[in-house]
């Protein structure tokens, strides 16, 4: 299926590894030109070289940190210089430290709210006017299954990512008439370095062997396994495609059935 995004200009946050990189690769494979973003110039350069070697959409990169107050302004400027603008924006951020709700401090909330919520909203607001004027745009925010079914010991992530749910739905209603879709994609247990880190933390916290932690986690997923980055990225690529123009304001799950609610 042609996803109708050849030559579209895409910005993918946190694309030095994991889900962000997988999404960038999937979009570029459809012929879109992609701006990779992250804190490691070395990793980003290697990723861009690999995407460019595939000979489809081109990739460029910018070293940028979500903790920087000038992050959004810098990304829009670089996207303009290197791509000529933004048609597709994939908001993806790293997760905060694990921990319970009672342990959250105001300082911790402020720090991670700035990186995981405020920067996403600011960047999207800066990218939207050109999308609306063009009559075409895609905004996709990577969330977590925790916004539907809170994940134990990830209270900070559950709290902050949930804030983006209401924002996604509210914004989608405001810009749908201008040809811009706004959706949120919820991963379950997709096998990334982040999931490995969380499994290791769970093993340390509970005193169980790592393989037992992973076995227990997989037993709680109806599909019986962790998802792959490629599976998740394929769903993301569809949601930002020309084919998905009538899908907006949605929370889309890619979780192997992990979330138990309807």
From TrEMBL:
Q: Which Pfam families match?
A: adh_short_C2
List the InterPro entries: NAD(P)-bd_dom_sf, SDR, SDR_fam
Q: Which SUPFAM superfamilies match?
A: NAD(P)-binding Rossmann-fold domains
PANTHER family reported for this sequence = 3-OXOACYL-(ACYL-CARRIER-PROTEIN) REDUCTASE, NADPH-DEPENDENT REDUCTASE BACG
Task: Identify its protein family.
Answer: Belongs to the short-chain dehydrogenases/reductases (SDR) family.
Would you tell me the protein name for this molecule?
3-oxoacyl-[acyl-carrier protein] reductase
Instruction: State the taxonomy lineage.
Output: Bacteria, Pseudomonadati, Pseudomonadota, Alphaproteobacteria, Hyphomicrobiales
